[in-house]
Specification:
Layout: E1 2-4, E2 15-18, E3 32-33, E4 40-44, E5 50-55, E6 58-67, E7 70-73, E8 77-80, E9 88-91, E10 98-101, H1 122-129
Antiparallel strand pairs: 1-2, 2-3, 4-5, 5-6, 6-7, 6-8, 9-10
């Protein structure tokens, strides 16, 4: 699978493509489009004929088939909504769940777990405060 710029007038948006399985006799390298409204982070679903990818805060799924060695993708459908900020994801082996990586965003300034106090000249201070009695 590839992620790249679409051809034509749409610039600055990435799309998901599947390259040809083998080079056609004509030498053309036509890529089969998978996404139709932007897409990134594609993964093959392990137990189905689906490709999943992220688009606009959602995880999209596309069912695919092959006909005569040609890749044919159906229309993308929403597999899971409200996944904004996804850095990476993968599909579980059963194809029913995903593991998602999102960046941690602290809600407040981090507090230190420990406080370290460094004492210098401890014995000099003790001698000053509690002189030795003879």
């Amino acid at each position: 699978m590839e992620v790249g710029e679409p051809g034509g007038q749409i610039q600055g948006r990435t799309e998901v493509y599947v390259p040809p399985f083998s080079a056609p006799p004509s030498g053309e390298q036509n890529r089969a489009p998978v996404s139709d409204d932007g897409g990134a982070l594609p993964v093959w679903a392990p137990e189905s004929s689906d490709i999943l990818y992220q688009s606009r805060g959602r995880i999209m799924a596309v069912r695919y088939t092959t006909r005569g060695g040609t890749f044919v993708a159906d229309k993308p459908r929403v597999w899971a909504a409200n996944f904004g900020g996804v850095v990476a994801f993968d599909v579980a082996p059963d194809g029913n769940r995903v593991a998602v990586v999102v960046p941690a965003t602290p809600r407040e300034a981090p507090r230190p777990d420990h406080t370290i106090v460094l004492l210098q000249n401890v014995f000099d201070e003790l001698r000053r405060r509690a002189p030795a009695v003879e």
